[in-house]
Amino acid sequence: MNIIPCALSGLLIIEPDVFPDERGYFVELYRSERYHSFIPELFVQDNHSFSRRKVLRGLHFQTGSPQGKLVTVLSGEIFDVAVDIRRGSPTFGEYETATLSGDNHRQIYIPEGFAHGFCVTGESALVVYKCTSPYNPAAERGIRWDDPSLGIPWPVEAPVISGRDRAFPALGDIPDDELPVYGAEV
Predict the structure, then answer these.
(1) How many CB atoms lie within 10 A of CB 105?
(2) H/E stretch holding 33
């Protein structure tokens, strides 16, 4: 397993060991004692998402009960984005991107205090992600996917976006008390 720290504090790209043979391949996606050596939080919920070409989901976060996420693509390909939204962080408003696919087997760990989104760059994508806290609809928030202050270079034209995600405000329009505080991560 190869663990690659990203420029934004806490973000990690993980390249699990892949064992191919004439039948296909085997990949261990998660083992608690191994992953807990570099991810301090415990995972409490697993989610599975299917999306078609050009679907863009995000940028999502939860206020009060933040979620760290370990994102894996089982098939297809996505352009994954994590935005640092921790008030007081030296990298507040900066983002990191990664291409995750069923072929490259890469994972990204997004710690609490980040907004997360992705778009499908292939025909479709099956995405699974482990979360450090349960989904809480009352705590759900988001940032507009095309916020000009972020300047994320989404690689799809005319993305398919839900009405809810389209209505999210820009990062600068979110009240400070709805954003996590740098250094206050659990």
Answers:
(1) 18
(2) helix 32-35
